[in-house]
Design goal:
heterodimer; A: 292 residues; mainly alpha; 72% helix; B: 268 residues; alpha/beta; Rossmann fold; 6-stranded mixed beta sheet; 3-stranded antiparallel beta sheet; 10 helices; Bact_Polysacc_Export_ATP-bd (chain B); ATP binding (chain B); transport (chain B)
């Protein structure tokens, strides 16, 4: 039975927990809530997916045409005009530059869609948040899942092209979920943070519109970290996206295991982003209702 | 209070107060978020003050008051949409809020799809919504329109559909905020009959400007003025004094601003 108890503006947690139990409940809370609201997540997700192409006749075909067109243009541009075969910097395996940048762009587009949308997310759902008993913390999860669907379509297009161009796919492609799921966790955490911030001020949205395009060049989308000069090829990992792009390229394009230090670093970033984002959102969620 | 009586209390509020934060400058909220632990950068604007209320299981409470007196905020606080700034609140039971009916509908989607979303938002499982779908459609009585986008609906049709969803939640506490004013007389009667029936098993909190509805449905009335309870008790008595006050106090243009000024003068 759901019961509410509130004293002086603070929600009272009834259980009296020790430090370990409190840690366990903090770690499990986002997942417990996702499971509890799974039917709501599915219902809103269905609405979101329909909304993206509302009023369009071709609908989902657009989601397939866009990446097809993009990779077609890159292939044309980089095979006919300038030819820049790229190696991964260690064993000298060469891959097509069009696949190289396309893989980077897929990852980056996933990030940028979340970064652009998250600050406006709670504004889009003001009616729900103010007029119904609505788990607003599930909105970043839902929008990440929606973006995941489009990313997976682009990813499938890329794998088909890669297979067509090289005649095979490396077995390491099977490892993709081990980096893709942490990437989703990273983006959900980022969305929690940006959504809470964006509820207070529209500036968060404008800030994202300004800096995200610049990030595209601060991330190894068009180049590899190995091509950078000495100090920068280390410091580029300070950009959280670098590790994800590099690891995903390693397993999909170069067909090798990623550097374990880089992989550990990306996992660390994911966990930190996820829990920091949730902590931040949870802390301000009751204030957010009143400022929306 | 013995445990047997306290278990029958479904809503218990003690000295409940709700203040919105008013900022003198547009960006003071940022200072508040960063430096709020040090000093307050806002003026509190109290919309609810000192509300003490006990609602027993099976009671029907009618809430009266003029526009802007804090009725809706009180309901939002009880539903848990917004936290009170002061005081204690305890709620036991599943609440179905019937506030601002139809405001959450997605205009582009059909009535059918909105029922699925609306049901999920009210906490129903997908299978439950699908099972109850025919009953929801029948209660709403909008026929073929169910498969049209909601943007083609009239206000009345939206209200019908939204109320119909809420009526199928099987809540223990029903919170209704001026929901029925747009429906036609026949639908209003149907809803009132339904609420009347709901009262047999559940608890009702009911805001309305129709005194006839309050007389018919409520066992107790509460009159709220400027965020405080001015009078409560038997519906007939409260309605009588409320009406008397309305005759004396004309619809004053300064009403909203003077309340604010009074608060500022009181130095709160």
């Amino acid at each position: 039975m759901p019961s509410v108890k509130v004293v002086n503006g603070k929600q009272i947690v009834v259980e009296n927990l020790g430090p370990i139990e409190r840690l366990v409940s903090f770690v499990s809370k986002p997942f417990v809530r996702m499971w509890h609201h799974r039917d709501l997540i599915a219902a809103i997700l269905r609405r979101e997916v329909r909304e993206r192409f509302k009023g369009s006749i071709a609908g989902w075909i657009w989601a397939i045409i866009a990446p097809l067109l993009a990779i077609g243009v890159y292939t044309f541009a980089f095979t006919t005009t300038l030819s820049l075969p790229v190696s991964d910097g260690t064993d000298g395996k060469q891959v097509s530059y069009s696949l190289f940048i396309f893989s980077g762009i897929i990852v980056f587009n996933f990030f940028s869609e979340m970064a652009f949308r998250a600050p406006m997310l709670l504004h889009e759902y003001t009616h729900f948040i103010k007029q119904t008993i609505f788990p607003s913390d599930m909105l970043p999860v839902i929008s990440t899942l929606r973006a995941t669907a489009y990313t997976l379509i682009s990813g499938a297009v890329m794998l088909i092209f890669q297979f067509a161009m090289t005649g095979s796919l490396p077995w390491t492609v099977l490892l993709l979920p081990f980096i893709f799921i942490p990437f989703m966790a990273f983006l959900i955490g980022m969305s929690w943070f940006l959504a809470a911030l964006g509820a207070f001020t529209r500036d968060a949205g404008y800030l994202m519109i300004t800096i995200v395009p610049l990030f595209m060049f601060a991330t190894p989308v068009f180049y590899s970290h190995a091509q950078l000069p000495e100090p920068f090829n280390f410091w580029i990992y300070a950009n959280a996206l670098t590790g994800f792009v590099e690891v995903m390229r390693d397993v999909v394009l170069f067909g090798k295991l990623p550097n374990m230090i880089v992989y550990g670093w990306t996992l660390l970033i994911s966990v930190f982003s996820f829990y920091f984002g949730y902590w931040f959102f949870d802390r301000y969620r009751n204030v957010i209702v009143d400022v929306l | 209070m013995s445990s047997s009586t306290s278990s029958e209390i479904v809503v218990e509020a003690k000295n409940l107060g709700k203040a919105f934060q008013l900022y003198a400058h547009r960006n003071d909220w940022l200072k508040q978020v960063l430096l709020g632990w040090w000093k307050a950068y806002f003026k509190p604007f109290w919309v609810l003050r000192d509300i003490s209320l006990e609602v027993k299981k099976g009671e029907s409470i009618g809430i009266l008051g003029r526009n802007g007196c804090g009725k809706s905020t009180l309901l939002q606080v009880i539903c848990g949409m917004t936290l009170p700034s002061h005081g204690e609140l305890r709620v036991n039971g599943r609440i179905a809020p019937v506030l601002a009916l139809g405001s959450t509908f997605d205009m582009e989607l059909s009535g059918r799809e909105n029922v699925l979303i609306g049901g999920a938002v009210l906490g129903l499982k997908r299978s439950e919504v699908l099972r109850k779908f025919d009953s929801i459609a029948e209660f709403a009585g909008i026929g073929e329109y169910m498969d049209q986008p909601v943007k083609h609906y009239s206000m009345g049709m939206r209200t019908r559909l939204a109320f119909s969803i809420c009526a199928h939640v099987e809540a223990e506490i029903l919170v209704v905020d001026e929901a029925l004013s747009v429906g036609d007389a026949a639908f209003q009667r149907k809803c009132l009959d339904w609420i009347d029936n709901f009262r047999k098993t559940g608890t009702l909190l009911f805001v309305s400007h129709s005194m006839a509805e309050v007389r018919r449905l409520c066992t107790r009335a509460i009159w709220i003025e400027e965020g405080r309870i001015r009078e409560q008790g038997d519906p007939n008595d409260v309605i009588r004094s409320y009406h008397r006050a309305l005759l004396v106090e004309k619809d004053d243009v300064q009403r909203f601003s003077s309340g604010n000024a009074k608060q500022a003068a009181a130095g709160e």
